[in-house]
Amino acid sequence: MKTLHFILGLLIASSPLFSQVINGYAKVNSISSNTLTLTNVSESGNTFEDGDEIIIMQMQDNVIGTNTSNNSSFGNLATIASAGLYEVRTILSHTESSSLPNTITLDTPPENAYNINSHSSIQIITFKALGTPNFTTPSNLTALPWNGNIGGVLAINVAGGIFTLANNLSVNGQGFRGGANDKTQTNGNCEDNVFISTWTTRAFKGEGIYKNTNTLFEAARGKILNGGGGGASHNGGGAGGGNFTSGGNGGIGWGCRNLAPRSCGGLGGVGLNSVISEFRIFMGGGGGAGERNNNWNTSGGNGGGIILIKADQIITTGSCGSISISANGENSLNIGNDGAGGAGGAGSIIIEVNTWTISPTCPITISANGGDGGSVNSSTHGGGGGGGQGVVIYSIVTPTINTTTSTNNGSGGCSNNSSPCNSSADGGSGTDGSGIIDNTSGPLPIKLIDFTAKKINSKSIRTNWQTASEINNDFFTIERSQNGINWKKIGKINGAGNSSALLKYSFIDQTALSGTSYYRLKQTDFNGNFTYSAIRTVQINQLEASQIKIYPNPSNNHIWIEGDSFELEQIKIYNVLGKEITIQTKIVEKSSTKIVIDLSNLIPAMYYIKTKTTINKIIKQ
């Protein structure tokens, strides 16, 4: 029923203006081996089901270290820890409470080490395969906005198929939250030396990759990692959030207007380009709020979220006008007289694709641009800082045919909201476009379409599997178990390395076991990382396993008996009267699967050979 609700949701979202959430989200409270304990579950966009893939992502971590003093170093990066790491895993099983999952058991433990503490947050996002195998967007798609625990990520999985973009994908302003517009009025001197404070006297900071739980850190000029700092007394502008590059500082403000370069504007959120890669990405930092002494300051803009796309092909068709994929930071408002808010930093876009075919009548724009800081209508109050640029990472060379990609810094807000602007806050730092990265592949893994194990006969089991795409795939190992716990390697098949084609593989187990056997596939990358398939079972009953071959029959002297070791543990010969014959025969040769018996001392007649569970008639000539 849950799947039906999801499909109906896709069908009814037909309006081109409708933005649909297609992912489920949950906060991870604890990780024990391969079991995750969950809270804050949202299945309004999609559900967590056994056999489905999910993304595990560390959104925030304790990265601030000792940079907590009241100076300009407050909020600097001390250690990146596990912030931004993510990977794909498969749900093996789950439990529910009130129809929502509260624990999920994965097929294998997570590869990354994730941290759970008071300054961290981890979430899981559904990564259900869309289409069979092709998928066309039914409407504009978006993410659940980040709320401090979950959201901010739009994940699309069309691996092995064609992903047709007929609508926009947007997580603009869905990332880390901007500093709130407080209601405190102050009239102070130039507070250029106040970097930490409660909100009661200074403006709120924007949110970043450090989860703040200390009220003393929530306001004033200091950035908080990639979250921009708030304005200080009085009328200081809020700073822009950062991501790949840092956000811009907020405008000087009234209190410091005649004391430049002193400023009561917030400090821009830090740039994280030194730690960003295809394996570690971030949402854009929120902008800091502007400070007020009257009633007209503005809040900071939200950062951009994250878009993850896995597909064999991405195409556009028809005369659509244009399509966009965007993770832009949010602009701050231009309605203030007091300090203006800083803009949100841009988010991150990962596109793992093999073929890119964009129609000239339906061009596409991909952007992770910082927002613009807010402007004010006073020439002596602080405008908001611009947001830093985000990142767009391609697994292929950056496409240019009918495609435009941008990672631009946002502009700082003007202090007098005039044209031309004669005094403005800082824009995001760095060179526009430096956040575009290509020809690299991240942790969106090999797409295994299926894995089966089927009986050929009482001695042979055939395993088959297919891959829709492979990235850095070294080899497959076929493993067998009698109890589903202890596994034995029974075969190895080399992988294709990197491939975008549909590939088929097969391996035959020629020494199948009687009873129930368990089979699984282990896939290993060139760097040694590995994942497991789902487990398959095959049943061979005792009678099937007990079949033996006796030849030649009739025989003059020697007979050969072939069967499994279980059957050949016991060999007896009887005459037609049922009397066991032991003296006249001897075993010439014996192995675990074959016995040769000399019948030359027996008189010509009919006899019976009994193995462990079978009785077979033979003729001695």
Description:
- The protein has 621 residues and is mainly beta.
- Among the domains are: 447-542, chitin-binding protein cbp21 (Coagulation Factor XIII, Chain A, domain 1, Distorted Sandwich); 546-620, Immunoglobulin-like (Sandwich).
- Helices cover 2% and strands 34% of the residues.
- The chain is built from 2 helices and 34 strands.
- It has helices at residues 2-12, 542-545; strands spanning 19-21, 25-32, 35-42, 53-60, 86-97, 100-106, 121-126, 135-136, 140-142, 153-164, 169-170, 306-315, 323-326, 348-352, 355-357, 364-367, 391-394, 403-406, 436-437, 447-457, 460-481, 488-499, 503-509, 515-525, 530-532, 536-540, 549-551, 558-562, 572-574, 580-581, 586-590, 594-598, 605-610, 615-620.
- Strands 8, 10, 12, 14, 15, 17 and 19 form a 7-stranded parallel sheet that branches.
- The N and C termini lie far apart (70 Å).
- The model is unreliable at 1-17 (pLDDT under 50).
Total count of strands? 34
Taking all Cα atoms into account, the compactness measure Rg is 33 Å
What name does the CATH topology of the domain at 447-542 carry?
Answer: Coagulation Factor XIII, Chain A, domain 1
Q: How much helical structure, as a percent, in the residues?
A: under 10%
CATH classification class of the domain at 447-542: Mainly Beta
CATH superfamily of the domain at 447-542: chitin-binding protein cbp21
Q: What gross morphology would you assign? A: elongated
Low-confidence stretches: 1-17
